[in-house]
Amino acid sequence: MKDLFEKIYKDKGPLGKWAEQAEGYFVFPKLEGVISNRMKFQGKEVVTWSINDYLGLANNPEVRKVDAQAAADYGSAYPMGARMMSGHTDLHEQLQNELAAFVNKEAAYLLNFGYQGMVSTIDALVAKDDIIVYDVDAHACIIDGVRLHMGKRFTYKHNNIESLEKNLERATKMAEQTGGGILVISEGVFGMRGEQGRLKEIVALKKKFNFRLFVDDAHGFGTLGKTGAGTGEEQGVQDDIDVYFATFAKSMASTGAFIAADQEIIDYLKYNLRSQMFAKSLQMQLVVGALKRLDMLRTMPELKQNLWKIVNALQSGLKERGFDIGTTQSCVTPVYLNGSIPEAMALVKDLRENYGIFCSIVVYPVIPKGLILLRMIPTATHTLEDVTETLDAFDAIRERLTNGTYKRMSAALMKAMGE
Ligand SMILES: Cc1ncc(COP(=O)(O)O)c(C=O)c1O
Fold this sequence. Notes:
CATH superfamily of the largest domain: Type I PLP-dependent aspartate aminotransferase-like (Major domain)
CATH topology of the largest domain: Aspartate Aminotransferase, domain 2
Bound molecules: pyridoxal-5'-phosphate
CATH class of the largest domain: Alpha Beta
Structural class: alpha/beta
Strand content: 15-25%
Largest sheet: 7 strands, mixed
Low-confidence stretches: none
Distance between the termini: 35 Å
Helix content: 40-55%
């Protein structure tokens, strides 16, 4: 018999195997200083395009003040225990009511973390005879939620309505046999490529098929829609989303999350959501902080306007200079370049060291081999100067990528990696 750890000693996993080359720089980098458009990386100032602080609330002085006061008033323990047992308060309820009103749903329920809240909500919504149909490019929290499901599941091709329809036909046949129902899951905005889920077309399929729709709107909440209520509002289909999810980890610049739906559904989830029933309540600092942030989302439309000013300048600037930004329909701004992983590493190093631009890099297996994806998240704290500086830097690195500079620079690394 093998020692359980044997496989760990041999194989660190698909990402872990790069640790030696990547850790501290490409992965687990340490960004220092207050969260803003410019922070420090390894002692040097960089323009940061990798932080999901869309509305610039992370370091807003009013927000910081409320957070600090809440910490002084409540400490980080209060309330103790799960909501059901001893961790329930008026302010938790108030925040839920305000969130529900903001996203135009009857009721809402707080989650301690978006990731585990999504997993748990999927788990609570389906029984063994139900069928899940979900987008193949779904976020890990959706995939892991589906993994808990004891019944059948189908994936449809990314944002492909024809494929969804085909899978709904299969799911319907199956559900007729099992006696269960169908749950369709999509993201509001797909966080890597920035495309919006085709919610309007998904919802239109409700005329033909009997299913309920669950939308993870982590990147849409606060950034899309007239009032910032998200992708459902943007596409005019908020009412047809049966269960709506958003995290506080992006536009709200905090920790925590919520789901919103009809009262009866939330009442059910309240008593069946294992991630909340068996975990300590969201601490008060975060609740008070979220109330403040939500108030700012409601009353300060200029935050979203500032964000979009930067998004538009960045995306149109990239397009004008001939960069491929794919099919984004949101603030998420991908730039696709051709190159190997070692070239991507040399390029990102150059971008950070010599041009002071910090963005995330995504390579195979997340995207096809031979492609490099530089992913940028514009925020309301960025300036037009940041954008120009970044566009100029991108021109320079593209030139060096095409003239083979990075290939030469990364030759040793490529050899080591057998490329
Ligand atoms: C689409 C999506 N869903 C869920 C989550 C998880 O949210 P949290 O960070 O609150 O756990 C994220 C990342 O934050 C996300 O991008």
